[in-house]
Amino acid sequence: MDRIPLAIIGCGGMGHRHMYGLAELTNAGLSRFELVAACDPWTSNAESLADDAEGRLGKRPAVVGTLAELEKLGVAAVDITTTPPYHHSLAVEALERGMHAMVEKPVGLTVKGSNRIRAAQEASGRVVSVAENYRRDPINRLGKALLEAGVIGTPRVMIHHTMGGADKMLISVWRHQKNQSGVLLDVGVHYADILEFYLGPITTAYAQSRLHEKYRLNPAAGGGENASNPAGVYGKWQKDMPGRFEATAEDASYATLTFASGAVASYVEDHAVHGQGVWTRRIYGSTGSFDLPNDRSGNVITLHKDGESINDGRLLEMVPDFRLDPTTAALFGGDRLWRYDFPFNETDRKLLAVEYGEFGDAIATGQPVEVDAYQGTRSVAISYAMLESSVAGRAVTIEEVLNESLGEYQRDIDEGLGLV
Ligand SMILES: NC(=O)c1ccc[n+]([C@@H]2O[C@H](COP(=O)([O-])OP(=O)(O)OC[C@H]3O[C@@H](n4cnc5c(N)ncnc54)[C@H](O)[C@@H]3O)[C@@H](O)[C@H]2O)c1
Asked: Atom of ligand 1 at shortest distance to CA of 46?
């Protein structure tokens, strides 16, 4: 099979993690790609990714700084894992150069930026896949199958409450800056995607948003240990980040969301609570409810129905036709799973491998991707709808945010990006 020449653009934490995912897929004999370039204007990051890739993939990709160089190398597909302010300009340029693009979430920093990518995708006819990993978790696949099988009847209410964080830095300084992708966008798009994955299109949002912690602390500054560091790849950068810095992005949203189906969600995303943290993702239907575990944990769904709580292999008996897709099944060790047990790093790279598998299949066969530019843009619009609602002081429709007729909260970000 001819390999698709691929470049990773943005060689920070997620760039490295994506490369680990590519290696996972390659080692399983399922990759259609050959990593030919690592692209980052911060050359030491690109060199780091290239060195690491040589050990894992057996061949060192070229280190480059621009898309023009990628074109000269014959790159046909790019994986954009830069910080969000660069997603739209890089994706549009890649598409205009005839390349396919996988883009990390949020697909664009704002709705306007995301809509630029949608337009460029439509004009180019190339594949755009948004790297949304949470819905690909086998446990979420099972949850969706249970819902579709009618195990809890007609869905009525979803509760999605996450609270934690106190005044600590979440991974990096930029996740607390409004003009670089504040935490309610960075994390919120995952949850927006999950809400629509389970219950279909969201139509309205009414929210109060807050910036509780105006200064954040980075305990890893100067070599301390305790900063949030998923997959263990961020420590080398975190030690050089400031120990205390100003936050400009809101860190909490409290919302009511409605769905086209008539269902309602209670949504709390608060990254600033001190004291007891919260994780609740629960769906109530007309005949029962289930609790969904944290994404990427491998923990178990608990079904509550007819006075019973079920959280074991009996869940599979309720969905006899449930099958994971072949790539997920090969990587996670079975096509019917109700739990899995891997270290976080391994789960992380398996899910990223699944994304690469689907992206390669879409390029090779023309089959549609699951999270396309439109769906990725919806998640951006839903996250901003909560912030726009808080500014407007009213319930807003997702449609008015998506079609850019409401965008007061995003205006200064768009101005900074040169999009207005
Ligand atoms: N899906 C997930 O679970 C998940 C987890 C973490 C991050 N992410 C996403 O991945 C993206 C990157 O996050 P991160 O944590 O790796 O950030 P990071 O700060 O660790 O790395 C970003 C990298 O992008 C590079 N970069 C900036 N501008 C560039 C440009 N114009 N061209 C090429 N490279 C450029 C930087 O030099 C840096 O190396 C974000 O969109 C983030 O939301 C997703």
From this structure: 39
